[in-house]
Records
---
Amino acid sequence: MPKPSPHAPRLLVSRIQRFCVHDGPGIRTTVFTQGCSLSCWWCHNPDLRGPVGHIPVVVQASACTESRRLKPAPQASTGDQRDIEVQASACTGSPDRGPKSAPHAWDPRQLADHVQRDARYWRASGGGVTVSGGEPMVQAQALAAFLAELGRRGHDRCIETAGAVPRDHFRRVAPHVDRWLYDIKALDPKRFRAATGGDAAVPVANLRWLLGHTRTPVTVRVPLINGFNAGTDEPQRIAAMLADMPRPVGVEVLPGHNVGCDLRPGDPDPKPAPRQVDAAAEAFAAGGLEVRIRW
Amino acid sequence: MVADAATRDLLPELQNRLFGAQDTVCLARARLATEAWFRHAADPPPIRRAMTLAHILENMPLDLESNPVFAGNASSAPRAWSVNPEFGFEVDPQGCIEHDWLHPDWLRRQIPPALKRKWRGHQLGSSAGTGHLAIDLDAVVNRGLRAMLADLSGCSKDRSRPRRDYRAAMAISLGAVIAWAHRYADAAEAAARTCTDPAIAACHRRVADACRQVPEYPARNLFDGLQAIALVHLALSLEGQGVSISIGLPDRALARFAEEAAAEMEQAATWCGAFLLKIAANSYHGRVSKTQAITLGGADHKGKDQCNAVTMAFLKAYERVAVSDPHCFLRWHKGIHPDVWDQTLRLLSAGRSMPLLVNDHVAARGLIAAGMKKRDAWDYCIIGCNEIGVPGRAWQTACTSGLAINDLACVDAVIRGNGRLSSAGQVVEAYHKQVLATARKGITARRQWIKRKAEQSPFPLTSALMHGCREAGADYQLAMPYSDIYACYTRGTTNAVNALAALDAVAFGKSGMGLGEFLRRLDHGDQDLLRQIAACPRWGNDDDRADRWGVALNEARQSALDQAARGRGVRLICCHVVRSLHHLDGRRIGPTADGRPAGQPVADSIGAAAGEARLGPTAMLNSVLKLNAARDLAGIYNLNLTLPGGAQSSPQVLRALCEAFFLDGGQELQINVLDAAKLREAQQHPERFGDLVVRIAGLNARFVELSRLEQDELIRRAEAAAVST
């Protein structure tokens, strides 16, 4: 196997989970990248969330002693974030270490070699690789390289994103994606910023671009969170927004839960009431959208 | 046929009756066997055995009540322990592991003192014949026993006295089974005349009609065929065979009636369900599994799929009745009938824990490599917990005597006996030598054991139903085809692989502490060392640093077995069989290099050790796929895969897992879909979970009937599965 270039972009991955059946079709391997452009209080992977500027600290604390010259972009305002560039000259990659391992800077090709150990199950099930996070689109350059490598090998590629990154990131990554799971959390700017720290307009604009400029299947996922958007008019507003998109999309309602959350005192339980879930699903259905609830 | 709907409605009641049966002992066979055995003490052993069987079948109380759908019984009440005094009053120690109520003296205490005195000094040992066989079912169903008697008559000019005696014993035995069926026919006719319940009376009439025909003559329809199988199967038990008298390949034997089953699938499934309940009532250890395996599906040697409507009827029957024994295996191959495969996946996804899956392509290839003809190899079935054999042709492929290797114990003995070892590779070499020495002795011991068993404890009925034995006038233990292919049992492989990986990382190499220091600290329970061992790569996580030792160990074992067998006129195939022996083995082994504390069970499968499949099922399966099963484990391995319920065990996901695994060389897969919370609830409220059937290492069982030890092990397995997925 050829050695990776020391200057090749590295994908900062916190964990790799095999045998996933909820992150796209079939049996999939989900690669969880480190770092996120949002900071949702109900996040189920808070260990991957963290301010992007803190990534080097996390990496230095990891078992990956060979990774070096990590150059993350400085923390920037959401929606105006530059690509994180992670480089390591001699990191040879490490095996997946289970659910809570420390981040590791992977050479894209070696990461592809590593994850495709399960390719036999992807092929048999119509599955593939899903890259989630954190926010994978933050690391657009390395992500695109990884996805391109998977594409050359004929594997199905899915991205799970909240869309809160610059448009250039989508332009760079989109050609290498076979399907998208796209979070739309809320449209109300104040509500969105208060809960996530981001700009609600960015994901919507990126979604519009994606649907207008690619033919790749997109499933919109709406996390329904008590204390955030459950019981509000957000489902109706999102349904109306989606109806105005360049092409139709399917919608999945994801009722929140508190597993894995790092809730602070006073934070509500993210789990919505069943009637709120039903109401949200009805709102999407009423908007002419194909809707599914994923408990 | 009449009363079909009524028969279907009977099934739940029959099942409840069976599940509610007490763990009792039936002394009827014991008393009858005692009378005949001593009366014929001067006769040659085969004649004595045949006369004993004939006396039992002539006088054994018949049972048309507990399950009136089919005739046949091996004891006076469902699941009552039918005692074989000519062998002994031993209790299988595995039964004591699996069931809290059973203890080593349980049977002895039930035997009247006079009976014990009578048999003192006359018993053959153990508590029954070895079993682990499947007869030529096709001949039973499609030729009938009368045709076999004619075969024997054709050999009457043989001048050899032993062969003449043996054939005479076979004829007596076959005739006794025919007469038994006629007794049943008479009794059923009489019962039909007096029975006031029209549905039951119809069952009796059907039984009477069938028993006039079978097993004496070929079956005329599906019911006849099932009745013939049931009667002969139970007669084998009454002859004195022990556990694992397998049904073989019933859907192939009954293939003539596939059109009938297809036309009336509901009726066929009902009959198959009642048949399963009849077999399940056949007891040897009360509620302990008798592992009377049924094998379905598969391809023939030309690659033609052998699934038919009878296959489907059996699978549907397993959906209706929650029996744990007979446990069911399905032979998978690339061209398996899609409906059969769909039904199988539905059963597994619903948590039925059956059928267990065997990949034809690997299993048959292994048998061919061991010297079997292609046609026979593709006719294989399961003849025990998970051992492989061929109906009527191969039995010693599942015989353990003299040839058993616990890999962990072997590796442990090697490293403790040679302090100069300085690499894990050297440990494997020393293991090879140890296996070679064991196998050389084992071949001799096996030969002597078989000869002694065949002389002292012949089974003329069993032998009459095997290929080649009628012609040879000899016992199946000697005269069956492929009696030169011996099984060698193995266990503890996973632990041994983990031990090698730990030794490689911690004891050996530049930074290693050395073998002496490693063992000293291990024996003192040094916590720092145990932490280091726990951090080492483990088998079952698709990690080549551990998995390469799995490959090396299995290759070394088979290489040693091949070397031991060279020039001895036998072939040795390895069979990874566990059942509950992982507990018993573990109790005999001290602390081991894999970090396992003294006395703890060894692994219950060739997969990851309990709780150590850290990266989920695909990683575990990938590790196992690195083994060359057809070459190194041709006797079949035992691979448990426990999955949580929900999307991770949907039929679609199971299909993909199984097909990917099998297409890339996986040999066998036993899938449990278990929910830990449900199991805990069943432990607390057994009355609500009577139909919860689970797969343990080598048998299926109703969860609520298992010992606390086994229940807890299954709960731990389910918890680990939920975490790792």
Note: The mean pLDDT of chain B is 94.
---
Amino acid sequence: MKDAIQSAQDFLLGTQLPTGGWGYSSDAQDAYPEPSCYGLLALRGTSFSSTNTLSWLSSLVASDGKLYLHNDNTPSWASSLLALTLIRLNQLPEIRQSSIDWLLEWKSKAVEGSSGGRWNASLIGWSWISDTFSWVQPTSYAVLALKLAGFKTHGRVKEAEELLFDRMCLQGGWNFGNPVVLGQPIDPSAMETAIALFALQDLPSAESRIETGLNILEQTTTQSPSTISLALCILCLDIFNRPVQGYVDHLLARQEEDGSWGQKTWWTALSILALQAVDGGENVFKL
Amino acid sequence: MFSNFKKLNRREFLKLTGVGIAGTLLGGTAMPLIQRLKQPQADVTILKESSYSNNLVNSIRKGISNYPHVLQKVKGGRVVLKPNMVDHYPGHPINTDPAMIAGAISAFRQLGAREVVVAEGPGHNRDVEMLLSQTGIDGVLRDEKVKFIDLNLDSISPVKITSNYTGLSQFFFPHTILNADLVVSMPKLKTHHWAGATLSLKNLFGTIPGVKYGWPKNFLHWYGISESIADIASTIQPGFAIVDGIVGMEGDGPLHGTPIHSGVIVMGDNLTAVDSTAARIMGFYPEQIQHMSMMIPYGGTVNKALIQQLGEPLFTMPEKFKVLPHSTYVTKKPSLWEQALISGW
């Protein structure tokens, strides 16, 4: 396991871009916040210096805490990941705080009524892009970041928890955030189920829905394993103390000779985080 | 909904006809009415193919060869094939068939392409590794040794929107699309429960990058599906379309509809004309499909009289594609006035 982690970390070190960040794949030309945050987290505890990456990430953040991609003038959804990363690394306190402040301020659009009576579109969470609807992944990451920042009981967080449960798929688990369209159920997916469960991990009162979600996560990952689903499944099951060895074996079997998973930096970083979590290290998504 | 021209509100009427307020309502340019309603002649190739097991390479190659200026772009160029790869529900023909993609790869290579890549930005599913496996497209990529590019995670740049029906002024597009010598939209022939039909124009939603706009690309719905389709298509102007209609989808498209054996491939270099033809094959009136009409001022051809059918003659399926109750407008014959205004001359 340690060899697998080491070679994967070597791959990440070799694919860092001159700006200091990472793109999504080894041949990427441009860095993005998401893979850069995962990369930073995956290289904690090594001799890697995070200075350049942190400098690049901080250059994306305006004084009001909004994060902007290059050439863009609308805030990016990656603020929550940045906040989470800076909390875990205990870095850039001012940017960490302004990102949190922005997350608390940033609201998705609500729509009156519901989709065929199935779900409540008036609940407010977080959207991918400003002035649009709320979705599972950005809401979940925002909830997780805010909980890590000490806002577990904040009204925004409580409403978002209600939203996430409201958007559960009919059979349990989560997809991107649309459980039913024109009366047709949309299936859950491993990725969103795991991320939603990250956000809801501290709610014992909702145990049966979380239990169902975990079962769905195991089923979907087993039926359609991929690097992302395996890594997130491992991270999630680890939080809930469920067995992970089978998924770990599958994940390790997919590692390539260059240490990567699919030459994708974000897959590789998430895989490192999963392996570290089960190898006695910290689970970065655990509250 | 623009399903009944008589209900068209004043704003939309002005957008389409160019009368009155120029500039802002008309995508930023004050085109004269005559230019807005004039549609170019277009050639659309219809090929009958009964099965994905057939030798599709020859059919596709034959079809592409009808377009000399497309062949010029292909020779020595980088061709980007943009299929539908959205989700996977067994028994529901959601995605472009791997055999079509394989056929297109070989055809373009035989025609002299320097490089052929397959690129897609799935709308709501971030796990492309899983999607590629579930759809079988990964096997084609391996066998043909072709790169797959996730357009959602590509390098991106802002581009001024040509038509600007949405009012957004710019979209960010992936460099893979912007730098291609030829972008080929390769959709599945399907109904769509909001847009009427999803063909080569709607397929272009997959070029909008999730790294900026998210998963799903919900903002496109907030600013209008038809408006967004037209803005994307008018701006990136793919050079070719190949519609996989061997097995299409009817009913509750684009995900939950049912298979219908339509036995056809529709191709051409005027995507609106290709889609209009495909819609007619489905038993629909393209004049009733808003985003197709919106393409008219930007080189799109809807008027049947201006579309020369190459290959097989135009036909309509003996059983029209089934649609949901709220989508029956696509099967409603437009009035002569509607046809004249929308189809132009």
Note: The interface with chain B takes residues 23-25, 28-30, 32, 34, 69, 71-72, 76-77, 109, 127-129, 131-133, 135, 137-138, 175-176, 178, 181-182, 184, 186-187, 189-191, 224-229, 262, 267 of chain A (CB under 8 Å).
